[in-house]
Write a sequence for this structure.
């Protein structure tokens, strides 16, 4: 920046103060509602397929292109949406996304052709939903640490709730007001997401010198004693960030501020103001008021992090499970928590460079990770899963009406059944994903192995079920299929990021997640049109379901080879080094079948 003054220096790590509750539950509510609305629109869009085909006299392939672009861009734009979120913050990104999506939805009301809707829904709303989806996930993982699995589990359940809710609603709206009314009503509902995004309040940060962090290891071995002050007991400085966060939320005149300030000053004099013996430098990182010996200045609204958060520099930002179960976090929590890890002076020019959107995209899409065979296998599996995931749900209502002769109301109930069981599945898989299982012979004692087996078996079962859809030839049978499909496919959503960490470690999660979104987007773009073409070619939807089922089943079966690949790699390392290599507890390197 121009001026004669020296550029500000920032040394060490910026560590977010994680509330693990409080306003965080409002953030969870806002993110939950975004999932209800965005995913509810996507998963219930199949209700519109038949009426749009009749209105514009098009075939299944043309209609399927809408959902392909909508879901494909929502996922495929993930790296771009992540970069925008990283630069402008979760609140601004989600509000911009909801505005874009609502414009596309409103424009669809005036559609005169299927191509028009393909653009307004598939492209415009797809980009908008992508900008809404990414910050809705990121902000929850930033606000929660100990309760992250619970918080993210509640959030992603919004997809199932939205499917169950909007399926019958859309059917009723079409029946009494016409298909255009669906887009008109959803315009207002999607605009409501701006209020949901407004709950994504930026976090508070503190700055800790890395030099002082080196002293932590020596002090940690000696053990930390609890310090007493005239204000009561102050535990070893791990409580200090929480004190600072509490005080930052108070008004300047609140008497409790002096209490917190006095406590922190007392800690400074004793030299024990760190959770592990280090001296924390209580410099606010863009979001806190200044701290001095006289007290803590109240936080001003303009001082919060709103222009650039840099959240994607946090290694666990895409991790949806319990971070306390990850060995890398247990070994060095602050390294995982920190936004930056720069032990040098950082000028404003360098800080601006860190905010470069293209650099973030490049970091997320670093193709060198594809040289690791387990990840490449997992990425291909995700691509095949995405090919088979959306089409069954998309064609389910029209298959029920045209293929099985059901009423539109009964066909819509199948979507509702999917939504209910999908919600239950996300809760169940999220609950058992981090736990040991009571299996015979001790087979369930390794949570990482459990997750991989659950994920693989669920996808395989879902694929076989979908390929055998021709057995479900009535209303009850169709609802049974929808329910089992919804439950089993939910593992794909809940366990993906957790298994990525098992495979690669936390350090590579952001890069791996970015590449995975790209693979998922590609699979989603090609899956529905191919399924639609098969339906047009054969005059039946069963071949489309079989095609999707094969992709889902293969995507699950192929991952059973990962333990063998890891064992072979470990054996090669032993031969090369002549000794047994150290086990990397952050990865699936020694899974036994």
């Amino acid at each position: 920046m121009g001026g004669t003054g020296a550029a500000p220096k920032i040394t060490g790590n910026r560590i977010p103060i994680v509330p693990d509750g409080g306003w965080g539950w409002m953030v969870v509510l806002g993110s939950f509602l975004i999932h209800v609305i965005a995913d509810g629109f996507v998963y219930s869009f199949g209700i519109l397929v038949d009426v749009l085909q009749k209105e514009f006299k098009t075939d299944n392939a043309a209609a399927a292109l809408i959902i392909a672009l909508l879901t494909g861009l929502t996922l495929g734009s993930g790296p771009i949406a992540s970069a925008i979120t990283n630069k402008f913050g979760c609140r601004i990104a989600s509000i911009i996304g909801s505005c874009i999506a609502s414009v596309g939805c409103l424009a669809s009301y005036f559609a005169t052709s299927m191509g028009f809707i393909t653009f307004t829904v598939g492209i415009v709303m797809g980009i908008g939903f992508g900008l809404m989806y990414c910050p809705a996930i990121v902000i929850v993982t930033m606000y929660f640490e100990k309760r992250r699995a619970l918080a993210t589990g509640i959030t992603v359940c919004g997809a199932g709730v939205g499917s169950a809710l909007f399926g019958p609603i859309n059917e009723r709206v079409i029946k009494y007001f016409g298909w255009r009314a669906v887009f008109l009503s959803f315009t207002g509902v999607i605009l409501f997401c701006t209020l949901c995004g407004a709950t994504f309040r930026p976090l508070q940060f503190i700055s800790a010198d890395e030099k002082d962090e080196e002293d932590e290891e020596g002090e940690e071995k000696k053990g930390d004693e609890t310090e007493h002050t005239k204000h009561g007991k102050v535990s070893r400085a791990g409580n200090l960030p929480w004190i600072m966060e509490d005080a930052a939320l108070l008004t300047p005149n609140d008497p409790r501020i002096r209490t917190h300030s006095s406590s922190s000053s007392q800690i400074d004099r004793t030299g024990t103001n760190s959770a592990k013996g280090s001296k924390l430098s209580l410099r606010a990182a863009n979001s806190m008021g200044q701290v001095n010996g006289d007290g803590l200045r109240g936080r001003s609204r303009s001082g919060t992090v709103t222009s650039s958060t840099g959240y994607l520099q946090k290694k666990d930002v895409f991790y949806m499970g319990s971070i306390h179960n990850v060995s890398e976090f247990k070994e060095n929590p602050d390294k995982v928590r920190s936004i930056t890890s720069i032990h040098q002076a950082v000028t404003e020019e360098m800080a601006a460079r860190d905010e470069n959107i293209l650099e973030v995209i490049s970091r997320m899409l670093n193709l060198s990770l594809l040289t690791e065979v387990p990840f490449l296998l997992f990425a291909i599996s995700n691509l095949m899963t995405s090919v088979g995931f959306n089409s069954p749900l998309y064609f389910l209502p029209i298959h029920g009406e045209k293929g099985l002769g059901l009423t539109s109301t009964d066909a819509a109930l199948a979507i509702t059944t999917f939504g209910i069981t999908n919600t239950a599945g996300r809760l169940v898989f999220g609950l058992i994903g981090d736990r040991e299982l009571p299996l015979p012979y001790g087979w369930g004692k390794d949570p990482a192995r459990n997750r991989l087996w659950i994920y693989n078996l669920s996808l395989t079962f879902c694929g076989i079920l979908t390929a055998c859809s021709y057995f479900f030839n009535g209303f009850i049978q169709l609802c049974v299929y929808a329910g089992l499909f919804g439950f089993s496919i939910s593992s794909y959503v809940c366990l993906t990021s957790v298994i990525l960490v098992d495979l690669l470690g936390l350090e590579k999660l952001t890069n791996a997640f970015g590449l995975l979104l790209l693979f998922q987007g590609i699979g989603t773009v090609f899956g529905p049109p191919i399924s639609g073409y098969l339906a047009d070619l054969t005059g039946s939807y069963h071949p489309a379901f079989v095609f999707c089922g094969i992709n889902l089943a293969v995507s699950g079966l192929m991952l059973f080879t990962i333990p063998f690949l890891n064992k072979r790699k470990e054996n090669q390392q032993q031969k090369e080094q002549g000794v047994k290599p150290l086990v990397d507890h952050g990865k699936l390197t020694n899974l036994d079948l």
Q: What stands out?
A: The beta strands are 13-16, 205-208, 227-229, 232-234, 283-284, 291-292, 295-296.
